[in-house]
Amino acid sequence: MKNTKLSRYLLFISGATLFTIIVMIVQKSYSNLITPINQANSNLLIKPIDPHLDTETLLEIGQKIEYQPSDIIFSAPIPSDSTPSSEASPSSVL
Predict the structure, then answer these.
(1) 35, 73, 85, 87: most buried, per Cβ within 10 A?
(2) Of 17, 14, 36, nearest to 25 (Cα)?
(3) Residues contacting residue 92 through CB under 8 Å, at least 6 positions apart
């Protein structure tokens, strides 16, 4: 009689453990399925693109002047010969 009670107890514990493991696997699978969908819905960078072109912006871009590198005038200062030539030589530093 004691053996029957022990085997029923072990059978109940085994069944409850198996049920708990199956529920945890199903819950984790459902969570893995739903999480990317929720992240995509909450992400502000993922939006539908407006198919209508803003022609005013296109006209502004077309009216801009494009500069070539040869058009840019860069006046660099020209060194004069009047600067003192008393630069420190390596031997004078020591």
Answers:
(1) 35
(2) 17
(3) none
Question: CB–CB of 50/44 below 8 Å?
Answer: no
pLDDT tens for 38-64 read 776 766 666 777 777 778 888 888 888
Place of tokens 């059978």: 11
Q: Is the pLDDT of residue 13 over 90?
A: yes
CA distances to 5, 72, 74, 81, 82 from 77, in Å: 103, 16, 10, 13, 14
Those residues whose C-beta lies under 8 Å from the C-beta of residue 46, and which sit 6 or more positions away, are 40
- Collapsing DSSP to helix, strand or coil, 4 comes out as helix
Domain map (residue ranges) of the chain: 1-42
Q: Quote the CA–CA distance of 31 and 39 in Å, as a whole number.
A: 12
How far lies 10's CA from each of 3, 24, 64, 93, in Å?
A: 11, 21, 83, 92
